[in-house]
Amino acid sequence: MATATRYAHIVLDHADVPHIAPTTMKVVELVTAQRANDWSAEELHFQFPYLSLGQIRSALAYYFDHKASLDADIARRLVLVDEMQQQMPEPALRARLRALRTH
């Protein structure tokens, strides 16, 4: 169940995470792509053609109006990814390649 916001195209899910309606894309996912690649709204539209420019601009407006809390969410997600990566065993191919380099 999604809750409408005062932003066109932006809804909150059951955990109050902002999404771009009617997609499953989270605002933080779009912002992360934008920041990582320094993409304009037009380039985001090219990269995510299923999103309209209106949806993209609304998501970016939502982000800038809620920047502190969304930046904290992005930071939390990055820490979680780092923790998960550290817990994963080394892939066998990487171990074999590393072994070849040391010989």
Task: Name some characteristics of this structure.
103 residues; mainly alpha; three-stranded antiparallel sheet; 5 helices
Description:
By secondary structure, the chain is mainly alpha-helical. The protein has one domain. Helices cover 61% and strands 8% of the residues. It contains five helices and three strands. It has helices spanning 27-37, 41-47, 53-65, 67-87, 92-102, and strands spanning 3-4, 10-12, 18-20. A three-stranded antiparallel beta sheet has the order 1-2-3. A hairpin with a 5-residue loop joins β1 (3-4) and β2 (10-12). The model has no long low-confidence stretch (mean pLDDT 94).
Give a count of the beta strands, DSSP E runs of length 2 or more: 3
What is the terminal-to-terminal distance?
Answer: 57 Å
SS-based class: mainly alpha
Strand order of the largest sheet: 1-2-3
Query: Whole-number average pLDDT?
Result: 94
Helix tally equals: 5
Short synopsis of the structure:
Helix content is 61%, strand content 8%. By secondary structure, the chain is mostly helical. The chain has one domain.
What does the secondary structure layout of this molecule look like, with pairings?
Layout: E1 3-4, E2 10-12, E3 18-20, H1 27-37, H2 41-47, H3 53-65, H4 67-87, H5 92-102
Antiparallel strand pairs: 1-2, 2-3
